[in-house]
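Protein in question kept in full:
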Amino acid sequence: MKSLKQYKSAAINTIEFLKRNRVRLVKGGKEYFTQLKSMIDNAKLTLHLQYYIFDDDDTGKVILEALSNTSERGVSVYLQLDAYASQNFSGKTIKALQDAGVQFKWFEPIFKSKHFYFGRRLHHKVIIADGLYAMVGGINISNKYNDMTGIPAWMDMALYCEGETAFELHKMCRLMWGSLLQPDKITSDKINEYCSTIPRNEYCEIRIRRNDWVTRKQQITKSYIDMFRNAQEHIIIMCSYFLPGHIFRKKISQAVKRGVKVKVILAGPSDVMMAKHAERFLYDWLLKNNIEIYEYQRTILHAKVATYDNQWSTVGSYNVNNISAYASLELNLELKNNAFATHVKTELERIIANDCKKITRENYFTSTNFARRIWQRFCYAFINNVLKLFTFYFKQEE
């Protein structure tokens, strides 16, 4: 059995690509929640879940019942939620889970945490079953992210994977849980035995990428910068709250000047309209730099996906803005696989063709009068100041 210190060392050092993985892109809505419930129902030893938002609505109740049933049949279930975003998760619900044997923990309770940092929230959306099966993305547990009767889900994506990466995510969750963990039921021998059943032609190289500025992790930010630096042909970014800072804008413009074709898929309808107005303030800069802009129209866009040159992709919780870069705990999976990257590009191109409106200089300036432009500038300045408030005074830890 490994000690917590050994887990910590392993988790810190897991920065290389792991090869023995099988993957599948999962769309939000019914497809995601069907997969999520299947993972819970079929778990045999352990379940770890970390979520930013977990609503006690119709969707949440289905998952809560599944977690309780799984715990009652002897599976060790650990549920960690962000204390701010999931603050409506009731004490009654928590007690019912604990009575069923589920281990429950808040991340950074606002008035009880010993190391509280304003704006530092658990933005992960991840489930790991038996150290073998994992799903990471941008999808929270709430009706908004599910296909309800007559109401389509918010547009989102996740990555389902089996193999070595799931085991490393399992160790990461144990590390983040901290003390009072039960002895680990998952061994490296079990992982190796399972990975030996994955055909080599299905191998997909994955590495876990995390952002947590307080603990000096800026891996996802670095991966995006590497994408801008390394791309030679095309980049496609799908992002729900796209407010790139100075460094990102510089790197994107450098990629365009090298001849890289850059497309961004952004929200049309938005759940945070002030952020959307701030985002539209950047449209002039994007268009001047020959970056193609597409606004998703079918519903609210919440996905966080990027790919380049049919060789690399990233899927997870990270938005291209300073909250993700300098405040929240973010989790992405980064993939080096030609077939998967080609699939992601094809899917994003399909979304562009069927569900998006292209923003051109003509239709942008036709729909944006002087007063609206002033309002967009105000929103951009306001949002930037809010981001500075969330991030400027963080003390980094050793």
The longest strand covers residues 205-212. The chain has two domains: 4-203, 213-391. Residues 312 and 381 are 34 Å apart (CA to CA). The radius of gyration is 21 Å.
